[in-house]
């Protein structure tokens, strides 16, 4: 059953309205943030400059010389109310496969270099995540992570960073992976990290505080736009995507890397219409039907 909280609106400075759906992260709040912000994009309201969905909220930037903030607030409340019904949350989406070399030597080396900044210098990042999730067997953890579909709830922070929230968790099953006590000053491009309940792919080499569990040979930020999936945007992620991680080994990692460099790699994707209401009612059976043929 989807539980949709009442949204709280606040003016932020002279140009922003902040809408807080909930203070706690859940799939239902993300579905509502996605539904409202997509509806706002579709209506192309004069005076709105930017629309930013987040994990449990959304932010609207507007031009007060074009639209009255109080008129816009009334408009937002009306749209928000219509998206408070579970049947109004349906969204077009796509599944995207992210080939993942788990516990690879590159991210292991970065974890070793920055171990003094982590929760425990006695564990690698991968081991710390396994321990936090209650796994003692590496393959069992990989199977669990790779069999979980992840909803992209928001994009931001570093160019193209997408927050992947796990589907199929029970309401009391959301885990909380600890982050570094002090961030790494370096993280390799396309490293995969976990922090809190989220998985992320680092789009570029950067600082970071999520625990590193692997690396992918495919870009999520591609300014050259040589690959077909980046024809219309430099960013792979779209809020509302479902990403799945497929385990690969060293040989396939370098094979895909070569295909990417030659501009011939094609992402494995599938478009579909996602029904949050049906997902809430059927759970894994709905996800299994969604993944059929992928």
What does this structure look like?
This protein is α+β, with helices and mostly antiparallel strands. The chain has two domains: 8-85, 2-Layer Sandwich (Gyrase A, domain 2); 92-291, Beta Barrel (Cyclophilin), CATH 2.40.100. The chain has eight helices and 14 strands. It has helices at 27-43, 69-82, 105-113, 125-133, 138-146, 250-261, 276-282, 284-291, and strands spanning 8-12, 16-20, 48-53, 57-62, 91-102, 150-155, 162-166, 184-187, 191-195, 198-201, 206-208, 211-215, 242-247, 269-274. A hairpin with a 3-residue loop joins β1 (8-12) and β2. α7 crosses α8 (284-291). It is globular and about 55 Å long.
How would you name the CATH homologous superfamily of the largest domain? Cyclophilin-like
CATH class identity of the largest domain: Mainly Beta
Topology order in helix (H) and strand (E) letters: EEHEEHEHHHEEEEEEEEHEHH
Distance between the termini: 27 Å
Give the total of domains: 2
Could you say what the CATH architecture of the largest domain is?
Beta Barrel
Query: What's the story with the biggest beta sheet?
Result: 8 strands, mixed
Which runs of at least 5 residues are low in confidence (pLDDT < 50)? none
Number of separate strands: 14
Measured as a percent range, the helix fraction is 25-40%
- The coarse overall form would be globular
Structural class comes to: alpha+beta
Radius of gyration: 20 Å
What is the overall number of helices? Answer: 8
* Mean pLDDT over the full residue set: 94
Which topology of the largest domain does CATH recognise? Answer: Cyclophilin
Strand fraction: 25-35%
């Amino acid at each position: 059953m989807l539980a949709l909280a009442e949204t709280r609106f606040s003016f932020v400075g002279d140009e922003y309205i902040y809408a807080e759906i909930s203070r706690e992260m859940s799939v239902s709040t993300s579905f509502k943030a996605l539904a409202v912000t997509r509806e706002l994009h579709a209506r192309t309201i004069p005076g709105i400059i930017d629309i930013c969905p987040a994990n449990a909220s959304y932010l609207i930037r507007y031009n007060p010389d074009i639209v009255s903030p109080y008129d816009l607030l009334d408009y937002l409340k009306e749209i928000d109310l219509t998206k408070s019904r579970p049947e109004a949350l349906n969204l077009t989406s796509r599944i995207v496969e992210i080939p993942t070399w788990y516990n690879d030597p590159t991210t292991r080396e970065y974890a070793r270099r920055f171990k003094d900044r982590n929760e425990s210098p006695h564990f690698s990042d991968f081991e710390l995540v396994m321990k936090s999730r209650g796994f003692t067997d590496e393959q069992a953890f990989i199977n669990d992570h790779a069999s979980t579909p992840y909803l992209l709830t928001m994009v931001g922070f570093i160019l193209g960073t997408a927050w992947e929230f796990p589907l199929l968790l029970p309401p009391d099953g959301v885990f909380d992976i600890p982050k570094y006590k002090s961030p790494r000053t370096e993280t390799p491009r396309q490293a995969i990290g976990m922090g809190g309940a989220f998985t992320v792919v680092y789009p570029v080499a950067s600082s970071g505080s999520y625990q590193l569990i692997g690396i992918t040979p495919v870009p999520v930020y591609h300014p050259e736009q040589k690959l077909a999936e980046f024809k219309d945007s430099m960013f792979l992620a779209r809020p509302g995507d479902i990403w799945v991680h497929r385990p690969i080994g060293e040989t396939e990692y370098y094979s895909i890397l070569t295909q990417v460099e030659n501009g011939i790699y094609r992402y494995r994707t599938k478009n579909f219409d996602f029904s949050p209401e049906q997902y809430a009612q059927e759970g894994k059976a709905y996800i299994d039907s969604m993944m059929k043929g992928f």
